[in-house]
Structure formats: C-alpha cells, structure tokens
Design brief:
Layout: H1 3-9, E1 23-26, E2 37-40, H2 42-47, H3 60-63, H4 69-82, H5 87-95, H6 100-107, E3 116-117, E4 123-124, E5 130-132, E6 136-137, E7 144-145, E8 150-151, E9 155-156, E10 163-168, E11 171-176, E12 180-182
Antiparallel strand pairs: 1-2, 3-4, 5-8, 5-12, 6-7, 9-10, 10-11
Helix pairs in contact: 4-5, 4-6
Length: about 180
C-alpha cells in the first residue's frame, strides 16, 4: 500500500473503519494511483467484487460520507449494486447528494455502453435536467407529476436504457425516457 494511502486512511479500512487496512483497491476504471484507491481490510477486499456478505456492506452507510472521492465512488457503487436486494442501500442512495462526476465514476463499470435517449432522440447523461412531456401518475404515491415538471440531476439506470431516475416531490422515482425531453 502506498504511503499516502496509508496516511490518508490512518491504517484503517476506509469502508468498514474497524479493521486494519492491508490492501489498496483501485476503483475502476481509474488508473492505479493512490488518489483512485481505497484502503481495504481483508474482509472488504475479499468480498468487494462479489458482495455476498450483505450485512457487512452496511458499512458503506458511513463510508459514503468520507470526503475522499475514491471512497465515495466505491461506497456509491456498492450501494447501487445492492439497492435491489437491500432496502437500506436504496434509502442511502436517496439520502445522499454525491457529485455527478463521482456518480459517473461509480457507475462506469456498470454501464455496458448503454445509451439513453429522450422522447426526441437527444442523448441523456447523468446530471442532465429533463422536462416531463406528459402528466405521469407516480406509482406507490398519492401524487401525479404534471406535464412540464422539471426533473434536475437525473441518473441513468445502468441496466435499462429506457429508464432514468430523478426526484419529484423529494422522492426518487423511475421515469420512462419516452416521457421526457432534455432541457
């Protein structure tokens, strides 16, 4: 492990913060450089690619608030990968405002080059602002979003190019791309 990474982490795992760090994990697709690495313990390092120890990964509820971009990116990536299995992961993603560059970094390994288009064929990207082209009933809530509603800082759904995520009335919802226009 590089000296600067060991100094930054204080010799402790930057994910779980309880066990001494022994490994430098590079958050892909960045290069092997301490600023792109996270100091991990044996437990985190062994499971970071598989994410099988679901209870263990609740530690990212704390590490996502770390000021270091690499730690934020890895924490976001882990929560994003677990959001369909673990409700705490989706709640975490809904509660944090992470810089869009870090979100792009965190989700870059999951993108598979899927391109998202709005109703008019414009390419959508993380962080874009869109406008609803028709009124939408929001499932699971008591409100509907009227035509012309502005949705800022959208997130692309990495495994479905027809879906984006955005906040309406402080709730993160999935929106079909065929009902939005890039602003």
């Amino acid at each position: 492990m590089h000296i600067s990474l060991d100094k930054r982490s204080g010799g402790t795992c930057e994910c779980c913060s309880t066990i001494p760090a022994r490994f430098a994990y590079t958050v892909s697709p960045k290069k092997d450089d301490p600023q792109n690495q996270v100091a991990l313990c044996d437990v985190c390092f062994a499971d970071v690619e598989k994410l099988e120890q679901l209870d263990h990964w609740r530690c990212v509820e704390g590490s996502i608030w770390n000021p270091d971009p690499a730690v934020q990116a890895l924490s976001y990536r882990i929560a994003n990968q677990l959001k369909d299995k673990e409700s705490w992961a989706q709640n975490l993603l809904d509660s944090v405002e992470i810089d869009e560059d870090i979100v792009s970094w965190a989700t870059s390994n999951q993108s598979n080059q899927m391109i998202h288009f709005d109703a008019f064929g414009n390419t959508l990207e993380n962080g874009d602002t869109v406008v609803l082209t028709q009124a939408l009933d929001v499932k699971g809530t008591s409100f509907s979003a009227p035509k012309g509603t502005v949705v800022k800082k959208i997130r692309l759904v990495h495994d479905n190019p027809e879906h984006i995520e955005g906040k309406i009335n402080e709730q993160t919802i999935v929106i079909l791309t065929k009902f939005v226009k890039k602003n």
